[in-house]
Design goal:
heterodimer; A: about 190 residues; Arc Repressor Mutant, subunit A; B: about 110 residues; mainly alpha; about 60% helix; binds zinc ion
Chain lengths: ~190, ~110
């Protein structure tokens, strides 16, 4: 055992005060449910405590975030496995219902709005709604979107995790983007 | 494949283009469709805009910090204390911690 481990064992409060808020913020960006987020951070601390290679230096935050990322990914993999869509992945009523049967034109065309990065990036209310929309996605879509888009997991890895083909992944991500756009349009851009 | 593309196809191609390099004929078909369809042009601009914004959000929010309320802080610390007592008592196994024989003497 090195000194780093011993000092944390002596006072976990130091550790929580140093990293707790940042790790929780990181998790809440991905997982909107507060309880789940706290659990994931808690699990991260516990896993870190048990790891033998703890160094206790400036790399601590990076290391902890690495553990946390794995926990978040596990969480979404679990979600995707537990709650598969009724009717499977063949159709998505929202996406497929968005186009006319004949000629496949938009039933309701996208509204006239643009994404203004500077106005939105620090807008708390906007992100509240974004996460609300993300939570409303079918679990496989949410899992694929968070793993691929937010956690930057490689596509092949996401396919393995969710047990789908790459063609399937593209369809699922397409549906996720379609639904997110529609949801944001309804609740933010043209309410 | 013909150069005619429906809006439904176009929407799918737009999303897929964010994931991978599309085959030439699909890129051309999308280009043609976008030339004549303002609805799909808006769709593409919005979806790409949201994509870009989310990427930024993820990168920038890694620096942001939320308030850690006292109760949460206390819960974290409590759990860690319990766990460290267990570990100190000599249970190197990462899986299921064993009840310490004498409560982990050295650190408390
Ligand atoms: Zn169109």
């Amino acid at each position: 055992m090195n000194d780093g481990v011993a000092s944390i064992r002596c006072d976990p409060a130091t550790w929580v005060d140093a990293h707790g808020a940042a790790l929780l913020a990181y998790t809440l960006m991905r997982v909107r449910d507060r309880q789940t987020a706290e659990d994931l951070v808690q699990e991260t601390f516990l896993a870190a405590l048990q790891a033998a290679n703890f160094r206790g230096d400036a790399m601590e935050r990076t290391w902890l975030t690495g553990i946390l990322r794995n926990k978040i990914c596990d969480h979404f993999r679990r979600l995707a496995r537990e709650r598969t869509q009724p009717g499977g992945d063949d159709v998505d009523v929202v996406v497929d219902g968005g186009f006319a049967k004949v000629m496949e034109h938009w039933i309701k065309e996208p509204g006239r709005w643009v994404v203004d990065d500077e106005a939105l990036i620090a807008n708390r209310e906007f992100w509240e709604i974004f996460h609300e929309c993300l939570r409303g996605l079918p679990s496989r879509q949410a899992a694929a979107f968070v793993l691929r888009m937010m956690e930057d997991v490689a596509a092949e890895k996401v396919c393995q995790d969710l047990n789908i083909s790459d063609t399937n992944l593209w369809v699922i991500l397409h549906r996720a983007r379609f639904r997110l756009r529609t949801c944001l349009e309804q609740h933010w851009f043209t309410p | 494949m013909s150069t005619w593309t429906s809006c439904k196809d176009a929407a799918k191609t737009v999303a897929e283009g964010l994931e991978r390099e599309l085959p030439f004929h699909r890129r051309v078909a999308l280009k043609f469709h976008l030339l004549i369809c303002s609805a799909c042009r808006r769709y593409r601009r919005q979806v790409v805009g949201i994509h870009r914004l989310v990427r930024r959000h993820v990168n920038e929010s890694s620096q942001s910090v939320v308030e850690l309320d006292l109760a949460t802080r206390q819960r974290f610390i409590e759990k860690l204390r319990q766990a460290s007592v267990t570990i100190d008592a000599g249970t190197p196994a990462a899986g299921t911690p064993v009840i310490p024989p004498d409560g982990g003497s050295s650190h408390r």
